[in-house]
Amino acid sequence: MSKIAVIGGGSWATALVKILSDGGKTKLHWWIRNQDDINHIRQYNSNPRYLPSAKISPEHVIPFSNIKDAIREANCILLAVPAAFVLDAIKDLTPKDFENKFVISAIKGLIPEKHILVTEHIEKNFSVHHKRVAVIGGPCHAEEVAMEKQAYLTIASGSKRFGKELSEAMQNRYIKTTSIRDIYGVEYSAVMKNIVAISCGIAHGLGYGDNFQAVLVSNAMQEVQYFLKAAYHIKRNLLGTAYLGDMLVTSYSQFSRNRTFGNMIGHGYSVKAAQLEMQMVAEGYYAVKSIYEIAKRLDIENDLPITRAVYNILYERISPIVEFRILKDQLN
Ligand SMILES: NC(=O)C1=CN([C@@H]2O[C@H](COP(=O)(O)OP(=O)(O)OC[C@H]3O[C@@H](n4cnc5c(N)ncnc54)[C@H](OP(=O)(O)O)[C@@H]3O)[C@@H](O)[C@H]2O)C=CC1
Ligand SMILES: O=C(CO)COP(=O)(O)O
After folding, report:
1. Residue 281 carries which DSSP code?
2. Is the dihedral of CA 48, 105, 78, 67 positive or negative?
3. DSSP secondary structure string, 44-108?
4. For ligand 2, what atom is nearest to the CA of residue 141?
5. Is 108 annotated as ligand-binding?
6. Where are the domains of the chain?
7. Which positions are annotated as binding NAD(+) (predicted)?
8. Of the residues 12, 19, 153, 246, which should be mutated to test ligand 2's pocket, given the most ligand atoms within 8 Å of the CB?
9. pLDDT in tens, 160-202
Protein backbone atom coordinates (compact mmCIF):
# COMPACT_ATOMS: atom_id res chain seq x y z
CA MET A 1 0.00 0.00 0.00
CA SER A 2 2.97 2.33 0.34
CA LYS A 3 2.95 3.82 -3.19
CA ILE A 4 -0.23 4.43 -5.18
CA ALA A 5 -0.43 5.71 -8.77
CA VAL A 6 -3.62 7.76 -9.14
CA ILE A 7 -4.90 7.87 -12.74
CA GLY A 8 -7.03 10.91 -13.59
CA GLY A 9 -7.05 14.64 -12.98
CA GLY A 10 -10.75 15.41 -12.33
CA SER A 11 -12.67 16.19 -9.16
CA TRP A 12 -12.80 12.68 -7.73
CA ALA A 13 -9.12 11.96 -8.44
CA THR A 14 -8.24 15.25 -6.74
CA ALA A 15 -10.42 14.40 -3.73
CA LEU A 16 -8.86 10.92 -3.45
CA VAL A 17 -5.36 12.40 -3.62
CA LYS A 18 -6.34 14.71 -0.76
CA ILE A 19 -7.92 11.89 1.29
CA LEU A 20 -4.90 9.61 0.90
CA SER A 21 -2.31 12.28 1.56
CA ASP A 22 -4.23 13.51 4.62
CA GLY A 23 -4.20 9.85 5.80
CA GLY A 24 -0.41 10.09 5.77
CA LYS A 25 0.24 6.40 5.05
CA THR A 26 0.95 6.53 1.30
CA LYS A 27 3.10 8.23 -1.30
CA LEU A 28 1.16 9.18 -4.42
CA HIS A 29 2.23 9.29 -8.06
CA TRP A 30 -0.48 11.32 -9.75
CA TRP A 31 -1.00 10.97 -13.52
CA ILE A 32 -2.81 13.89 -15.15
CA ARG A 33 -3.04 14.24 -18.91
CA ASN A 34 -2.82 18.02 -19.04
CA GLN A 35 0.72 19.44 -18.70
CA ASP A 36 -0.51 22.95 -17.77
CA ASP A 37 -2.41 21.47 -14.81
CA ILE A 38 0.72 19.62 -13.71
CA ASN A 39 2.80 22.82 -13.88
CA HIS A 40 0.16 24.63 -11.83
CA ILE A 41 0.09 21.88 -9.18
CA ARG A 42 3.90 21.96 -8.92
CA GLN A 43 3.91 25.73 -8.50
CA TYR A 44 0.80 26.35 -6.37
CA ASN A 45 -0.05 22.96 -4.76
CA SER A 46 -3.61 22.95 -6.09
CA ASN A 47 -5.40 21.53 -9.15
CA PRO A 48 -6.53 24.62 -11.10
CA ARG A 49 -9.69 23.30 -12.81
CA TYR A 50 -11.02 20.73 -10.33
CA LEU A 51 -11.42 21.34 -6.58
CA PRO A 52 -8.91 24.22 -6.64
CA SER A 53 -9.47 24.84 -2.92
CA ALA A 54 -8.06 21.41 -1.99
CA LYS A 55 -4.42 21.75 -0.96
CA ILE A 56 -2.11 19.16 -2.55
CA SER A 57 0.73 18.15 -0.25
CA PRO A 58 4.07 18.18 -2.13
CA GLU A 59 5.51 15.84 0.55
CA HIS A 60 3.08 13.10 -0.40
CA VAL A 61 2.23 13.77 -4.05
CA ILE A 62 4.35 13.77 -7.23
CA PRO A 63 2.49 14.68 -10.46
CA PHE A 64 3.41 12.84 -13.70
CA SER A 65 2.51 13.50 -17.33
CA ASN A 66 3.61 10.03 -18.49
CA ILE A 67 1.39 7.21 -17.26
CA LYS A 68 4.09 4.53 -17.48
CA ASP A 69 6.44 6.64 -15.34
CA ALA A 70 3.63 7.21 -12.83
CA ILE A 71 2.91 3.52 -12.29
CA ARG A 72 6.42 2.05 -12.63
CA GLU A 73 7.36 2.16 -8.96
CA ALA A 74 3.85 2.04 -7.55
CA ASN A 75 2.49 -1.16 -6.01
CA CYS A 76 -1.08 -0.04 -6.51
CA ILE A 77 -2.93 1.61 -9.44
CA LEU A 78 -6.01 3.68 -8.60
CA LEU A 79 -8.29 4.41 -11.58
CA ALA A 80 -10.32 7.62 -11.23
CA VAL A 81 -11.29 8.85 -14.70
CA PRO A 82 -14.88 8.63 -15.98
CA ALA A 83 -15.59 5.16 -17.42
CA ALA A 84 -16.01 6.55 -20.94
CA PHE A 85 -12.33 7.63 -20.93
CA VAL A 86 -10.69 4.74 -19.11
CA LEU A 87 -9.76 2.74 -22.23
CA ASP A 88 -8.11 5.80 -23.72
CA ALA A 89 -6.37 6.70 -20.46
CA ILE A 90 -4.72 3.28 -20.12
CA LYS A 91 -4.23 2.55 -23.85
CA ASP A 92 -0.41 2.48 -23.54
CA LEU A 93 -0.43 -0.05 -20.68
CA THR A 94 0.05 -3.82 -21.11
CA PRO A 95 -0.49 -6.76 -18.73
CA LYS A 96 3.23 -6.49 -17.88
CA ASP A 97 2.66 -3.00 -16.47
CA PHE A 98 0.08 -4.48 -14.07
CA GLU A 99 2.29 -7.39 -12.95
CA ASN A 100 2.42 -7.75 -9.14
CA LYS A 101 0.33 -4.64 -8.67
CA PHE A 102 -3.01 -4.12 -6.96
CA VAL A 103 -5.73 -2.26 -8.84
CA ILE A 104 -8.39 -0.05 -7.27
CA SER A 105 -11.30 1.40 -9.21
CA ALA A 106 -13.02 4.55 -7.96
CA ILE A 107 -15.02 4.72 -11.18
CA LYS A 108 -18.83 4.60 -10.98
CA GLY A 109 -19.55 3.62 -14.56
CA LEU A 110 -19.37 0.73 -17.03
CA ILE A 111 -17.02 0.58 -20.02
CA PRO A 112 -19.49 1.95 -22.62
CA GLU A 113 -17.96 0.18 -25.63
CA LYS A 114 -18.24 -3.22 -23.91
CA HIS A 115 -21.06 -2.86 -21.37
CA ILE A 116 -18.86 -4.41 -18.67
CA LEU A 117 -17.63 -3.32 -15.25
CA VAL A 118 -14.25 -1.61 -15.05
CA THR A 119 -12.86 -4.27 -12.71
CA GLU A 120 -14.05 -7.07 -15.03
CA HIS A 121 -12.22 -5.36 -17.89
CA ILE A 122 -9.02 -5.01 -15.87
CA GLU A 123 -9.14 -8.60 -14.60
CA LYS A 124 -9.71 -10.04 -18.10
CA ASN A 125 -7.52 -7.81 -20.25
CA PHE A 126 -4.58 -7.19 -17.92
CA SER A 127 -4.52 -10.56 -16.15
CA VAL A 128 -5.07 -9.07 -12.70
CA HIS A 129 -6.34 -11.63 -10.18
CA HIS A 130 -9.68 -10.82 -8.46
CA LYS A 131 -7.89 -10.91 -5.10
CA ARG A 132 -5.70 -8.00 -6.20
CA VAL A 133 -8.68 -5.81 -7.10
CA ALA A 134 -10.76 -3.37 -5.03
CA VAL A 135 -13.37 -0.69 -5.58
CA ILE A 136 -14.07 2.45 -3.59
CA GLY A 137 -17.78 3.01 -3.01
CA GLY A 138 -20.02 4.96 -0.68
CA PRO A 139 -21.80 8.29 -0.55
CA CYS A 140 -19.10 10.91 -0.95
CA HIS A 141 -18.97 14.00 -3.12
CA ALA A 142 -15.59 15.45 -4.00
CA GLU A 143 -16.75 18.97 -3.11
CA GLU A 144 -17.42 17.94 0.52
CA VAL A 145 -14.02 16.24 0.71
CA ALA A 146 -12.43 19.57 -0.22
CA MET A 147 -14.33 21.10 2.73
CA GLU A 148 -13.26 18.18 4.97
CA LYS A 149 -16.85 17.35 5.90
CA GLN A 150 -17.24 13.98 7.62
CA ALA A 151 -17.82 11.17 5.11
CA TYR A 152 -17.79 7.34 4.95
CA LEU A 153 -16.28 5.19 2.21
CA THR A 154 -16.72 1.49 1.58
CA ILE A 155 -13.83 -0.55 0.24
CA ALA A 156 -14.95 -3.71 -1.55
CA SER A 157 -12.04 -6.01 -2.28
CA GLY A 158 -11.28 -9.56 -3.33
CA SER A 159 -8.89 -10.06 -0.43
CA LYS A 160 -9.56 -9.37 3.22
CA ARG A 161 -5.97 -8.25 3.84
CA PHE A 162 -5.85 -5.86 0.87
CA GLY A 163 -9.27 -4.45 1.84
CA LYS A 164 -8.07 -3.81 5.39
CA GLU A 165 -4.83 -2.13 4.27
CA LEU A 166 -6.64 0.11 1.79
CA SER A 167 -9.30 0.98 4.40
CA GLU A 168 -6.58 2.01 6.83
CA ALA A 169 -4.76 4.06 4.19
CA MET A 170 -7.94 5.98 3.36
CA GLN A 171 -8.91 6.84 6.91
CA ASN A 172 -8.20 10.31 8.21
CA ARG A 173 -9.80 12.89 10.50
CA TYR A 174 -12.82 13.36 8.19
CA ILE A 175 -13.06 9.95 6.43
CA LYS A 176 -14.19 6.68 8.00
CA THR A 177 -14.00 3.44 6.05
CA THR A 178 -15.59 0.00 6.04
CA SER A 179 -14.35 -3.04 4.18
CA ILE A 180 -16.60 -5.63 2.46
CA ARG A 181 -16.16 -8.31 -0.26
CA ASP A 182 -18.88 -7.49 -2.82
CA ILE A 183 -16.79 -5.85 -5.60
CA TYR A 184 -19.20 -6.30 -8.51
CA GLY A 185 -22.32 -5.60 -6.40
CA VAL A 186 -20.92 -2.28 -5.14
CA GLU A 187 -19.89 -1.35 -8.68
CA TYR A 188 -23.24 -2.18 -10.29
CA SER A 189 -25.12 -0.45 -7.52
CA ALA A 190 -22.96 2.70 -7.85
CA VAL A 191 -23.62 2.70 -11.60
CA MET A 192 -27.37 2.31 -11.17
CA LYS A 193 -27.71 5.05 -8.57
CA ASN A 194 -26.36 7.47 -11.20
CA ILE A 195 -29.25 6.54 -13.48
CA VAL A 196 -31.67 6.99 -10.59
CA ALA A 197 -30.19 10.42 -9.79
CA ILE A 198 -30.79 11.45 -13.41
CA SER A 199 -34.42 10.35 -13.03
CA CYS A 200 -34.73 12.40 -9.81
CA GLY A 201 -33.30 15.44 -11.61
CA ILE A 202 -35.72 14.97 -14.50
CA ALA A 203 -38.64 14.67 -12.08
CA HIS A 204 -37.59 17.86 -10.31
CA GLY A 205 -37.16 19.67 -13.63
CA LEU A 206 -40.64 18.60 -14.65
CA GLY A 207 -42.12 19.97 -11.43
CA TYR A 208 -42.70 16.74 -9.49
CA GLY A 209 -42.28 17.21 -5.73
CA ASP A 210 -40.55 15.55 -2.77
CA ASN A 211 -43.39 13.06 -2.30
CA PHE A 212 -42.89 11.71 -5.80
CA GLN A 213 -39.10 11.61 -5.46
CA ALA A 214 -39.36 9.50 -2.30
CA VAL A 215 -41.46 6.98 -4.25
CA LEU A 216 -39.02 7.11 -7.15
CA VAL A 217 -36.02 6.37 -4.91
CA SER A 218 -37.72 3.55 -3.02
CA ASN A 219 -38.81 1.95 -6.30
CA ALA A 220 -35.27 2.44 -7.57
CA MET A 221 -33.88 0.42 -4.65
CA GLN A 222 -36.21 -2.42 -5.66
CA GLU A 223 -34.93 -2.05 -9.22
CA VAL A 224 -31.30 -2.34 -8.04
CA GLN A 225 -32.23 -5.40 -5.99
CA TYR A 226 -33.93 -7.00 -9.00
CA PHE A 227 -31.02 -6.26 -11.33
CA LEU A 228 -28.36 -7.52 -8.90
CA LYS A 229 -30.28 -10.72 -8.30
CA ALA A 230 -30.23 -11.43 -12.04
CA ALA A 231 -26.74 -10.10 -12.85
CA TYR A 232 -24.68 -11.09 -9.81
CA HIS A 233 -26.54 -12.82 -7.04
CA ILE A 234 -24.76 -13.14 -3.69
CA LYS A 235 -25.84 -12.42 -0.14
CA ARG A 236 -25.51 -8.67 0.52
CA ASN A 237 -27.14 -5.97 2.62
CA LEU A 238 -28.55 -3.36 0.25
CA LEU A 239 -29.28 -1.09 3.20
CA GLY A 240 -25.52 -0.59 3.58
CA THR A 241 -24.04 2.83 2.84
CA ALA A 242 -22.33 1.74 -0.39
CA TYR A 243 -25.77 0.84 -1.81
CA LEU A 244 -28.66 2.78 -0.22
CA GLY A 245 -26.39 5.56 1.13
CA ASP A 246 -24.87 6.29 -2.26
CA MET A 247 -28.30 6.20 -3.91
CA LEU A 248 -29.59 8.78 -1.39
CA VAL A 249 -26.72 11.24 -1.64
CA THR A 250 -26.66 11.19 -5.43
CA SER A 251 -30.44 11.51 -5.72
CA TYR A 252 -30.72 14.42 -3.28
CA SER A 253 -27.40 16.30 -3.20
CA GLN A 254 -26.90 19.76 -4.69
CA PHE A 255 -23.45 18.51 -5.77
CA SER A 256 -24.67 15.56 -7.83
CA ARG A 257 -23.67 15.84 -11.49
CA ASN A 258 -26.21 13.20 -12.46
CA ARG A 259 -29.09 14.95 -10.72
CA THR A 260 -28.05 18.31 -12.19
CA PHE A 261 -27.88 16.78 -15.67
CA GLY A 262 -31.33 15.20 -15.24
CA ASN A 263 -32.76 18.49 -13.95
CA MET A 264 -31.65 20.23 -17.15
CA ILE A 265 -33.23 17.49 -19.26
CA GLY A 266 -36.46 17.91 -17.28
CA HIS A 267 -36.30 21.64 -17.99
CA GLY A 268 -36.13 20.94 -21.72
CA TYR A 269 -32.39 21.03 -22.47
CA SER A 270 -31.17 18.65 -25.18
CA VAL A 271 -28.61 16.03 -24.08
CA LYS A 272 -25.84 17.90 -25.96
CA ALA A 273 -26.75 21.27 -24.40
CA ALA A 274 -26.89 19.77 -20.89
CA GLN A 275 -23.50 18.09 -21.34
CA LEU A 276 -21.90 21.29 -22.61
CA GLU A 277 -23.30 23.29 -19.71
CA MET A 278 -22.11 20.74 -17.10
CA GLN A 279 -18.33 20.73 -17.87
CA MET A 280 -18.15 17.57 -15.76
CA VAL A 281 -19.23 14.05 -16.56
CA ALA A 282 -22.63 12.60 -15.58
CA GLU A 283 -21.79 8.88 -15.67
CA GLY A 284 -25.46 7.89 -15.69
CA TYR A 285 -25.81 9.10 -19.28
CA TYR A 286 -23.44 6.36 -20.54
CA ALA A 287 -24.43 3.86 -17.86
CA VAL A 288 -28.11 3.76 -18.73
CA LYS A 289 -27.30 2.46 -22.22
CA SER A 290 -25.09 -0.31 -20.82
CA ILE A 291 -27.46 -1.31 -18.02
CA TYR A 292 -30.35 -1.39 -20.49
CA GLU A 293 -28.30 -3.62 -22.84
CA ILE A 294 -27.39 -5.98 -19.99
CA ALA A 295 -31.02 -6.03 -18.82
CA LYS A 296 -32.13 -7.01 -22.33
CA ARG A 297 -29.56 -9.80 -22.37
CA LEU A 298 -30.92 -11.00 -19.02
CA ASP A 299 -34.48 -10.57 -20.29
CA ILE A 300 -35.43 -8.26 -17.40
CA GLU A 301 -35.71 -4.88 -19.17
CA ASN A 302 -39.45 -4.71 -18.49
CA ASP A 303 -38.76 -5.09 -14.78
CA LEU A 304 -36.61 -1.95 -14.68
CA PRO A 305 -39.11 0.84 -15.45
CA ILE A 306 -36.92 3.70 -14.15
CA THR A 307 -33.91 2.57 -16.19
CA ARG A 308 -36.12 2.17 -19.25
CA ALA A 309 -37.67 5.61 -18.82
CA VAL A 310 -34.26 7.31 -18.55
CA TYR A 311 -33.00 5.30 -21.54
CA ASN A 312 -36.02 6.30 -23.66
CA ILE A 313 -35.62 9.97 -22.77
CA LEU A 314 -31.85 10.15 -23.37
CA TYR A 315 -31.45 7.76 -26.32
CA GLU A 316 -34.87 7.45 -27.99
CA ARG A 317 -35.63 11.18 -27.59
CA ILE A 318 -39.02 10.51 -26.07
CA SER A 319 -40.36 13.55 -24.29
CA PRO A 320 -39.69 13.48 -20.51
CA ILE A 321 -43.28 14.59 -19.90
CA VAL A 322 -44.67 11.61 -21.82
CA GLU A 323 -42.17 9.13 -20.38
CA PHE A 324 -42.84 10.21 -16.79
CA ARG A 325 -46.59 9.96 -17.37
CA ILE A 326 -46.00 6.30 -18.29
CA LEU A 327 -43.50 5.79 -15.46
CA LYS A 328 -45.74 7.14 -12.72
CA ASP A 329 -48.28 4.40 -13.40
CA GLN A 330 -45.58 1.76 -12.98
CA LEU A 331 -44.38 2.89 -9.54
CA ASN A 332 -45.95 1.73 -6.32
N1 LIG B 1 -16.96 13.79 -8.42
C2 LIG B 1 -17.38 13.05 -7.40
O3 LIG B 1 -17.81 13.56 -6.35
C4 LIG B 1 -17.32 11.58 -7.50
C5 LIG B 1 -17.03 10.95 -8.70
N6 LIG B 1 -16.97 9.59 -8.74
C7 LIG B 1 -16.62 8.90 -9.98
O8 LIG B 1 -15.28 9.23 -10.33
C9 LIG B 1 -15.11 9.10 -11.75
C10 LIG B 1 -14.41 10.34 -12.26
O11 LIG B 1 -15.33 11.42 -12.17
P12 LIG B 1 -14.94 12.91 -11.84
O13 LIG B 1 -13.57 13.03 -11.30
O14 LIG B 1 -16.05 13.47 -11.03
O15 LIG B 1 -14.99 13.56 -13.30
P16 LIG B 1 -14.69 15.03 -13.73
O17 LIG B 1 -15.70 15.38 -14.76
O18 LIG B 1 -14.52 15.92 -12.55
O19 LIG B 1 -13.24 14.92 -14.44
C20 LIG B 1 -13.01 14.17 -15.57
C21 LIG B 1 -11.51 14.02 -15.74
O22 LIG B 1 -11.26 13.05 -16.78
C23 LIG B 1 -10.24 13.59 -17.61
N24 LIG B 1 -10.30 13.01 -18.94
C25 LIG B 1 -11.17 13.26 -19.94
N26 LIG B 1 -10.88 12.52 -21.02
C27 LIG B 1 -9.77 11.79 -20.68
C28 LIG B 1 -8.97 10.85 -21.37
N29 LIG B 1 -9.26 10.48 -22.61
N30 LIG B 1 -7.92 10.32 -20.73
C31 LIG B 1 -7.64 10.68 -19.47
N32 LIG B 1 -8.35 11.56 -18.75
C33 LIG B 1 -9.40 12.11 -19.37
C34 LIG B 1 -10.53 15.09 -17.62
O35 LIG B 1 -9.40 15.77 -18.10
P36 LIG B 1 -9.56 17.23 -18.79
O37 LIG B 1 -10.05 18.14 -17.75
O38 LIG B 1 -8.19 17.51 -19.25
O39 LIG B 1 -10.57 17.06 -19.92
C40 LIG B 1 -10.80 15.31 -16.14
O41 LIG B 1 -9.59 15.41 -15.45
C42 LIG B 1 -16.52 8.87 -12.31
O43 LIG B 1 -16.69 7.51 -12.57
C44 LIG B 1 -17.44 9.33 -11.19
O45 LIG B 1 -18.68 8.65 -11.20
C46 LIG B 1 -17.18 8.81 -7.64
C47 LIG B 1 -17.47 9.38 -6.44
C48 LIG B 1 -17.59 10.81 -6.26
O1 LIG C 1 -20.93 9.11 -6.66
C2 LIG C 1 -21.08 10.22 -6.25
C3 LIG C 1 -21.33 10.51 -4.83
O4 LIG C 1 -21.18 9.37 -4.04
C5 LIG C 1 -21.05 11.37 -7.21
O6 LIG C 1 -22.23 11.44 -7.92
P7 LIG C 1 -22.37 12.47 -9.13
O8 LIG C 1 -21.41 11.99 -10.21
O9 LIG C 1 -23.78 12.43 -9.55
O10 LIG C 1 -21.95 13.82 -8.63
Report:
1. -
2. negative
3. HSS-SSS-TTSPP-TTTEEEES-HHHHHHT-SEEEE-S-HHHHHHHTTT--HHHHTT-EEEE---
4. 3
5. yes
6. 3-181, 186-328
7. 85, 142, 257
8. 246
9. 999 999 999 999 999 999 999 999 999 999 999 999 999 999 9
Whether pLDDT at 1 is above 70: no
Q: Any idea which architecture 3-181 has in CATH?
A: 3-Layer(aba) Sandwich (3.40)
Ligand approaching nearest to the C-alpha of 193:
2
The alpha carbon of 213 and the centre of ligand 1 are apart by a number of angstroms equal to 27
Tell me what percent of the residues of the chain surpass a pLDDT of 90. Answer: 99
- Distance CA(95)–CA(202), nearest Å, equals 42
Q: List pLDDT tens digits, range 112-153.
A: 999 999 999 999 999 999 999 999 999 999 999 999 999 999
Residue 258 in marked binding region: yes
What would the DSSP string read from start to end of 210-277? Answer: HHHHHHHHHHHHHHHHHHHHHHS-----TTSIIIIIHHHHHHH-TT-HHHHHHHHHHTT--HHHHHHH
Does residue 266 have its Cβ closer than 6 Å to ligand 1?
no
Q: Which residues are identified as catalytic? A: 193
Q: Please tell me the number of the ligand nearest to residue 9's CA.
A: 1
| Fold assignment, 186-328 | N-(1-d-carboxylethyl)-l-norvaline Dehydrogenase; domain 2 (1.10.1040)
134 among annotated binding-site residues: no
Interface confidence (ipTM) of the complex: 0.99
- The secondary element (H helix, E strand) that includes residue 332 is none
- Residue 80 Cβ contacting ligand 1 at under 6 Å: yes
The pLDDT of residue 68: 98
Structure confidence by residue, pLDDT tens digits, 243-262? 999 999 999 999 999 999 99
Tens-digit pLDDT profile for residues 31-46: 999 999 999 999 999 9
CB contact at 8 A, 166 and 134: yes
pLDDT at 54 over 80: yes
Residue 291: phi, psi to the nearest 5?
-65, -40
